[in-house]
Amino acid sequence: MKTTGLFVWGVTLLALLLGLFAGPAHAQAEKPKRTILLILDGLASGAIDRIPLPHLRKLKNEGCYYEEVHLPLPDHPEKSSTYPWSCSLPNPALMSGTVFIGQDGIKEHLIQHQFENATTAFVVNDRAYADVAGGFDIYLNLREEFEDIFRDAMVFDKTKAVIKSDDPAFLRVHLQGPGSSGHRSNEAENLEQPWYHDIWHPESPYIKQMRQADRLTADFINWMEEEGYMDETVLLIMGDHGQAHIGGHPPYRPESNKTELLILGKGVKAGARYEYAEIIDIAPTIAYLHALPPPRYATGRVLKEAFAGGPDAPPASRDIETLNGLLLEADYLEKSGKALPAAFQGILDISTWHTVVSPPDLGRFTDRQRALIEQD
Fold first, then answer.
1. Could you tell me which of 249, 349, 281, 324 has the C-alpha nearest to residue 96?
2. How many Cβ atoms from other residues are within 10 Å of residue 228's Cβ?
3. What is the C-alpha separation between 331 and 347, in angstroms, rounded?
4. Domains, the chain, ranges and CATH?
5. pLDDT tens by residue, 133-146
6. What's this model's pTM, rounded to 2 decimal places?
7. Residue 286 in contact with residue 37, Cβ under 8 Å?
8. C-alpha–C-alpha distance, residues 4 and 314, integer Å
9. Where are the beta strands (DSSP E) in the chain?
10. Tens-digit pLDDT profile for residues 327-365
């Protein structure tokens, strides 16, 4: 009996040791010291290769790349009691991890609020983002210092200074120049320009500003490497919305409704390529990287496939793309003179989307919208 007991004890110990060294099949990604979310405003899906942007194109081979990140139709309602945000619809979805952005107290449940015991910072050169900036320890709106929104280099100068002085665990950096330059192609005052209604024209302001952003991003990453920061950093580069071919981000132009995403840094799979993600996945992913719970109302998923130890492929569901398709169809039907059911909720009803499915669930909401639009 004694020999048998020793044998069982030995087998148990061996199993524990094997479990310790093997770890789970999809282990938690190695925690970075800092995560930086770099927003190139209005980065269109495919712009990195189409323009092209040589520095970002090179970085695609060094990190993980998502061809399309789908987001709520990027309308920009006036701030009001029913839409309490100063920015376009995708921005609160980005920071909260949900399209149900009208829920009670959601402004106190954005990704920056999860970093209770660490410093966070937000550097931007536009005033529009004040309502998604609450909860950041450091918020620098550079429009308080200068009016020129195209001086994106100043954003990186300030960002470097903040990293040097405070080294935030989470930092959002937002270059407004590219998106604002895209709007110029859709302004009547530029009707005589060869790039009017064509952001892809070689001389368009959008092309020029994106190329500048490409160079500035490369310089910033080189600085991070030289200063020894990059080894302990995960960097996510994306747009807050896409860019219509005619300029700007009219919500019912499909090219406005998606951007692209590049993830670089610690623990990221080099050379990984995926077709699809959603803007609501970003906040849960940032929380996951820092072993924090996601924001309270987040419904997005963690992009685990982007990191070492993660699965080989993402899930097949495409809820936001499907929902956007229904909203685009509804817009077409209305413009064709067909009345939609009163219960159908368009993009301007987004602040009340959460009230029609309880608890808020994107798949169920999409099914509801489809059922309503298919009514005779």
1. 281
2. 8
3. 10
4. 34-306 (3.40.720.10), 319-373 (no CATH)
5. 999 999 999 876 65
6. 0.91
7. yes
8. 46
9. 34-40, 64-70, 120-124, 138-141, 170-175, 233-238, 258-265, 273-278
10. 999 999 999 999 999 999 999 999 999 999 989 999 999
How many CB atoms within 10 Å of residue 13? 10
Tell me which residue of 258, 228, 232 sits closest to 243, measured CA to CA. 258
Strands 120-124 and 170-175: parallel
By CB atoms closer than 10 A (0-12, 13-18, 19+), residue 197 is: middle
Please tell me the distance from the alpha carbon of residue 364 to that of residue 376, in angstroms, as a whole number.
21
For residue 109, the SS3 value is: coil
Token pair of 117 as six digits? 């015991």
Residue in the structure block whose two tokens are 């120049």: 177
Q: Among 361, 371, 296, which residue's Cα sits nearest to residue 105?
A: 296
- Is residue 160 within 8 Å of 223, Cβ to Cβ? yes
- Those residues whose C-beta lies under 8 Å from the C-beta of residue 290, and which sit 6 or more positions away, are 31, 32, 35, 114, 115, 118, 169, 170
